Structures are given as C-alpha cells and as structure tokens.
C-alpha cells in the first residue's frame, strides 16, 4: 500500500482522509504531520491514522501531500527539500505555482498540483490535477488513484487553468452552501419547520443537480420547464434578475480566480 504523509491536518486533509477511508484505504498507511495537538488527537481518534509533529517522519512516505495554507507553504518547503528522496509531492495549496514550490524545495520536480474540494469527505469531490513534466506516468497514476478515492478527477494541460478551477470547483461548495443557507432561511421565514426547511431545500438541490447531470437539456431549458407563464417561478426569477443575482455569482467566481492568481504572484515572489 502506498504510504501517504499529509503535512497539515486541517479541513482539506480531513476531507481527503475521510474519502480514502470510505474507499477502503488502509488507515495505517497514512500519517499526518500537524503542530496542533488537539487536531492530532482528533485525527487519530476519528480515522486511526498515525499522527506526529515531526516533519522528518516524511522520509518513510511514498507520497507527501502538502495541505497547509498557501501562506505557510514556502517556509515548510524550504525545510522539506532536504528530506526528499524520490517521493511524489502533491500540493493542494490554492494559488501556489508548481515551479515556485519546486524552487523552494531546492529544485525538486516530482510535483503534482491538485485542486480538490471538500465533498471529498463523502467521495463526492472533484479534483483537477496538473503535473510538472518530470513527473512519471506511474507517479501520475498514483496521484490520480489517491484523488479518485475522494471523487472524480480531471487533468489539466496548462497550470494557468488552476485559477479558474479554484474559482469554480475548489471554492464552489461554499457558493452552493450559501444558496442552501438562503433557501433554508426563506423556508423558516415562510413558516416551515426547521426539519422541513432542511429536507425540502436539500432534496431540491440534490434532485435538480441530478436532473441537470442526467438530462441532455441545458440548465436554461430545464429552468424554463419549471417556469410557468404568469406563475410563481417567473416572479421569483424576476426578483433574482432585478437583484442581479446571476451577475453577482459570475463576478464572485471571477473574484476568486483573481485571488488565486494574486496569491500565486504575491507568495511566489518570495
Ligand atoms: N478548505 C478547502 O475547501 C480547500 C482548501 N484547499 C487548500 O488546502 C490547503 C489547506 O486548507 P485547509 O485545510 O482549509 O486549511 P486549515 O487551516 O484547516 O489546515 C491547515 C493545517 O496546517 C497546519 N499547519 C500549519 N503549519 C504547518 C506546518 N509547518 N507543518 C504541518 N502542519 C502545519 C495547521 O495547524 C492546520 O491544521 C490550503 O492551501 C488551501 O488553499 C484546496 C482546496 C479546497
Ligand atoms: O478559500 C480558499 O482559499 C480555499 C481554496 C479553495 C477552497 N478553499
């Protein structure tokens, strides 16, 4: 079993470990290096993974997943470089470009950059992957297998596309949760119980998403099928258009992509 060492045991590492566990991955092949003692204890209790605060323990891993904040990556990578010997390095940090990471690692090139998302924890994630040219086909296969335990994978032909991916699928779950929050609040205001508000809004999302995925019709056509002339949906959509909801969502995604590029520019300079 490929030994995986996560550096950083926060939200995204937990999501990926949860996905690996649900997929039957041996939890004793996974270790997590995390400075926060409470998080270490929780990870060990919940998943049975090895936990430590000692960075040198990565030496025994086959794959190292860098799961710290983008702002924490450079200092970590500078230490990590001397501990590497043929391991595959997977970075999930938003914005940080592979060549900047390679430079911080002292020229180490076996790097796959990945943008996962949190539905990974129930194997419903999607990850985009980009490999530096030095990464072998076998290493790409390993990265793909690990990320498939968390959901679907897509390989990018140009790293520049990571900014767009980050804005759509990386940050995207938060946009969907935001919409669900709004739907549930409206349901409560309209007099439904909390239980019904949750069930009705979540099943509506799940059903509409499944329909959009399975149907050959475009989302616009599916939307038109809900919208009776002079009816309730028409009134709701008019309200959304007047408030500029669609444009706000599009602008939000552009803002996220711009922030991803900005993180790469700012942090990559160092
Ligand atoms: N949360 C999300 O939805 C997604 C996050 N990402 C990326 O994943 C990375 C991690 O994000 P989160 O898990 O949300 O952050 P987080 O803050 O929950 O986790 C980061 C963890 O790294 C630990 N840490 C800090 N310095 C460390 C060091 N030197 N060695 C070992 N561990 C250290 C922290 O104690 C913390 O537990 C970020 O780079 C983010 O851009 C990517 C896709 C989605
Ligand atoms: O908000 C962030 O910066 C990270 C990257 C994508 C999702 N969470």
Distinct ligands, ions and cofactors found in the model:
1,4-dihydronicotinamide adenine dinucleotide, (2S)-3,4-dihydro-2H-pyrrole-2-carboxylic acid
Number of helices in the DSSP assignment? 11
Write down how many β-strands occur, each being a DSSP E stretch of 2 or more residues: 8
| End-to-end C-alpha gap | 37 Å
What is the quaternary state of this protein? single chain
Radius of gyration: 21 Å
Strand order of the largest sheet: 3-2-1-4-5-6-7-8
Number of domains: 2
EC number: 1.5.1.2
Domain Pyrroline-5-carboxylate reductase dimerisation: 159-263
Family: Belongs to the pyrroline-5-carboxylate reductase family.
Catalytic activity: L-proline + NADP(+) = (S)-1-pyrroline-5-carboxylate + NADPH + 2 H(+); L-proline + NAD(+) = (S)-1-pyrroline-5-carboxylate + NADH + 2 H(+)
List the helices and strands and how they pair.
Elements: E1 4-7, H1 11-22, E2 30-33, H2 37-47, E3 50-52, E4 63-66, H3 70-80, E5 88-91, H4 98-104, E6 111-115, E7 125-131, H5 137-148, E8 151-155, H6 162-170, H7 172-189, H8 194-214, H9 219-226, H10 232-243, H11 245-268
Parallel strand pairs: 1-2, 1-4, 2-3, 4-5, 5-6, 7-8
Antiparallel strand pairs: 6-7
Bound molecules: 1,4-dihydronicotinamide adenine dinucleotide (NAI) and (2S)-3,4-dihydro-2H-pyrrole-2-carboxylic acid (A1CAB).
3D structure, described in words:
It contains eleven helices and eight strands. The protein folds into two domains: 4-160, NAD(P)-binding Rossmann-like Domain (Rossmann fold); 172-259, ProC C-terminal domain-like fold, CATH 1.10.3730. Strand 1, helix 1 (11-22) and strand 2 (30-33) form a beta-alpha-beta unit. With 270 residues, it is α/β, with parallel strands linked by helices. The chain starts with a strand and ends with a helix. The chain has an eight-stranded mixed sheet with strand order 3-2-1-4-5-6-7-8, sandwiched between helices. It has helices spanning 11-22, 37-47, 70-80, 98-104, 137-148, 162-170, 172-189, 194-214, 219-226, 232-243, 245-268, and strands at residues 4-7, 30-33, 50-52, 63-66, 88-91, 111-115, 125-131, 151-155. Helix 7 (172-189) crosses helix 8. Bound molecules: 1,4-dihydronicotinamide adenine dinucleotide and (2S)-3,4-dihydro-2H-pyrrole-2-carboxylic acid. Residues 7-13, 33-36, 39, 67-70, 72, 76, 92-94, 115-118, 170 line the site of 1,4-dihydronicotinamide adenine dinucleotide (NAI).
């Amino acid at each position: 079993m490929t030994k995986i060492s996560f550096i950083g045991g926060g939200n995204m590492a937990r999501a990926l470990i949860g996905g690996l566990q649900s997929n039957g991955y041996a939890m004793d092949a996974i270790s997590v290096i995390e400075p926060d003692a409470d998080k270490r204890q929780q990870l060990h209790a919940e998943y049975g993974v090895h936990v430590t605060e000692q960075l040198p323990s990565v030496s025994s891993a086959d794959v190292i997943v860098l799961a710290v904040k983008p702002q924490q990556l450079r200092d970590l990578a500078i230490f990590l470089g001397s501990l590497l010997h043929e391991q595959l390095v997977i970075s999930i940090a938003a914005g940080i470009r592979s060549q900047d990471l390679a430079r911080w690692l002292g020229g180490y090139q076996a790097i796959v950059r990945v943008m996962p998302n949190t539905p990974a924890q129930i194997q419903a994630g999607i990850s985009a992957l980009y490999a530096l040219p030095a990464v072998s086909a076998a290493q790409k296969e390993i990265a793909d297998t690990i990320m498939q335990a968390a959901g679907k994978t897509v390989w990018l032909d140009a790293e520049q596309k990571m900014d767009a991916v980050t804005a759509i699928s990386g940050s995207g779950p938060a946009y969907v949760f935001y919409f669900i929050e709004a739907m549930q609040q409206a349901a409560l205001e309209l007099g439904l119980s909390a239980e019904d508000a949750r069930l009705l809004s979540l099943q509506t999302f799940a059903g509409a998403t499944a329909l959009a995925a399975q149907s050959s019709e475009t989302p616009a056509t599916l939307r038109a099928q809900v919208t009776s002339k002079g009816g309730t949906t028409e009134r709701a959509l008019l309200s959304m258009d007047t408030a500029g909801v669609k444009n706000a969502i599009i602008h939000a995604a552009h803002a996220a992509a711009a922030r991803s590029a900005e993180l790469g520019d700012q942090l990559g300079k160092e």
